[in-house]
Amino acid sequence: MDDIKKVTHIDNVRLSDDGKSVIIIDQTKLPTELEYIYLKTPEDIFEAIFQLKIRGAPAIGICAGYGIYVLALQIEATDYDGFFAEFHRLKEYLNSSRPTAVNLSWALNRMEGIVTANSDKPIPEILALLEKECKAIHEEDIQMCRAISEYGLSLLKDGDGVLTHCNAGPLATSRYGTGQGPFLLGREKGMNFKVFADETRPLLQGARLTSFELQRAGVDVTLICDNMASIVMKNGWVQACMVGCDRVAANGDAANKIGTSGVAILAKHYGIPFYVLGPTSTIDMNCPTGDDIKIEERDPNEIKTKWYEKPMALDEVKCYNPAFDVTDNSLITAIITEKGICRAPYTESLAALFKD
Ligand code: MRU
Question: Which of 38, 195, 316, 344 is 20 to 30 A (C-alpha) from 12?
Answer without folding.
Answer: 195
